[in-house]
Specification:
This protein is mostly helical and 515 residues long. 65% of the residues lie in helices and 1% in strands.
């Protein structure tokens, strides 16, 4: 009968398959799934997501009626809070207010270790900052060849060429303050040498600032020139204050920073963070609290320095007598609760900092730019403030006992924050651009392995095991494979038989005749 011919054909096909075929089949399947696993793992390590999952979301979901293909899967939903006053892009990169000196600090580290502490991306951002701060449209028309040459120097990528161009600018224009800035930053090998050049530049910059201030009302170009001169004098004074701090002249550094904040209250250099660090070095905690009272405001952008310094000051009041055993028995007092809440607030803002403060991760030299709430900001903060936490007896112990409790308060997944906006999803990729390759970037939240990596790992292991068993025991495994295929095909054979029983027998003959 025709309806019984299907089963002998299947049996005949299965009988023709030799054990070598099953070995080749399982071996090839294992190899392909292994290659897919390796690619998926590499893609996940580099981009933090599964390639198959991303392709499915971007290309298959729109066809299946999912999200619009034009919108990225990680794009944030529009904010519903109309009172949001901090509409800052998620991954905006900021100048590090505590950045080190290239010549006397970054380069010396490179000479000793052979490792490059700064990435090309970071240095390129600094070059863009220097062009914005230290150049203006009137430079070619002022009759000062040094300023015109410095426009080329700030755009130059090679350090030696930049330094050589700055020397040429000084030869043609001895009163070129920006050339002295570049040499102080990149050519000097000690802080003393840098301070000397910055003092020379300050005298020149002060004269230019006063002169351009008298003509700034003449035109927009003159106003732009005065803006440039203002940036130059603020930059020089801030760096001189940092030199004084590094050379142990703490009181002088505090005075210079306070005068700078008083004379230029609307500057964008975040000098208050420098002042906080110097005041902590003096252990002038009352003065630090006064600075925080002004800058730790709900309407102002936050930073790790602001949040963790506030936590340190509150922890200082209770940490010397704090004991987790005693606190678990009697509960936390009001002062202890305030300290713990301040630590939770700081950890929610930047969850990467505690591991550096507790020395669970090694600190490297901070980059010249940081990403707020990212690993780069955590490194920049911990590099300067770890000693201040160690100086307060018991502060690190209190941090160790309480910081992980923050994550029980934050919703998971991070659909919304607790005290701050949800933690941005793009910090890892931005931090990898800012931080050197030898540093293991801290990732928050810890990404779980995607389903497809686990699936391909299981598939690769299973097929490899089948290939090994088939190679060792070809006859039994061939019998098992035939039984498996016969079992899988049984439902389809049953459905086919039912369809043939329902349909008229001449239908197939009619269709065959038509063909």
């Amino acid at each position: 009968m025709e309806d019984d011919g299907y089963h002998p054909n299947l049996a005949m096909f299965l009988n023709t398959l030799t054990p070598k075929f099953y070995v080749a089949l399982t071996g090839t399947s294992s190899l392909i799934s292994g290659l897919i696993l390796i690619f998926e793992w590499w893609y996940f390590r580099k981009y933090g997501t599964s390639f198959i999952e991303q392709m499915s979301l971007n290309h298959l979901s729109p066809w299946l009626g999912g999200t619009d293909g034009d919108s990225a899967p990680n794009s944030p939903a529009p904010a519903s809070n109309t009172n949001n006053t901090q509409n800052v892009p998620e991954c905006k990169v900021w100048r590090n207010p505590m950045n080190l000196f290239r010549g006397s600090e970054y380069n010396r580290y490179q000479w000793v270790t052979g490792k490059e502490p700064l990435t090309y991306y970071d240095m390129n951002l600094s070059a863009q900052d220097h062009q914005t701060l230290f150049t203006c449209e009137m430079d070619p028309s002022t009759g000062k060849p040094g300023d015109e040459l410095m426009q080329l120097a700030w755009r130059e990528r090679r350090p030696q060429t930049r330094i050589q161009t700055a020397h040429e600018a000084l030869e043609k224009q001895p009163d070129c303050a920006t050339a002295l800035i570049l040499l102080a930053e990149e050519e000097t090998t000690t802080i003393l040498e840098a301070e000397k050049l910055f003092k020379q530049a300050l005298k020149i910059a002060d004269q230019c600032y006063r002169k351009s201030g008298q003509t700034q009302h003449l035109s927009s170009a003159h106003e732009d020139l005065h803006r440039r001169d203002t940036n130059v004098i603020i930059y020089i004074k801030r760096r001189l204050a940092m030199c004084a701090k590094k050379l142990g002249k703490i009181k002088e550094a505090v005075k210079m920073m306070r005068d700078l904040m008083k004379d230029f209250p609307s500057n964008t250099f975040n000098i208050h963070e420098n002042l906080i660090e110097v005041l902590l070095e003096m252990q002038a905690y009352a003065d630090v609290q006064a600075v925080l009272a002004k800058y730790d405001d709900i309407s102002l952008p936050k930073s790790a320095t602001i949040c963790y310094t506030a936590a340190l000051l509150k922890a200082r009041a209770v940490c010397d007598k704090f004991s987790p055993e005693v606190a678990s028995k009697r509960g936390l007092s009001a002062t202890e609760m305030n300290a713990v809440e301040a630590i939770h607030r700081a950890v929610e803002f930047n969850p990467h900092v505690p591991k550096y403060l507790l020395e669970m991760k090694s600190v490297i030299l901070p980059p010249e730019h940081i990403l707020k709430r990212g690993d780069s900001e955590a490194i920049a903060y911990s590099f300067f403030h770890l000693t201040h936490w160690k100086r307060v007896d018991g502060a690190l112990n209190l941090l160790y006992c309480t910081w992980e409790g923050t994550f029980r308060m934050i919703p998971y997944p991070l659909e919304k924050g607790h005290l701050f906006y949800p933690y941005p999803s793009c910090t890892e990729s931005a931090d990898r651009e800012l931080l050197p390759a030898f540093h293991d970037v801290s990732v928050y939240p810890k990404k779980e392995l995607p389903f497809f990596i686990l699936f391909t790992a299981g598939l690769c292991t299973f097929t490899a095991l089948l290939a090994l068993l088939t190679h060792q025991y070809p006859e039994p495994m061939g019998t098992v494979a035939k039984m498996f295929l016969a079992t899988i095909s049984a439902p389809f054979n049953y459905m086919f038989d039912k369809i043939e029983a329902l349909l008229p027998s001449y239908l197939f003959q009619y269709l065959a005749a038509k063909q």
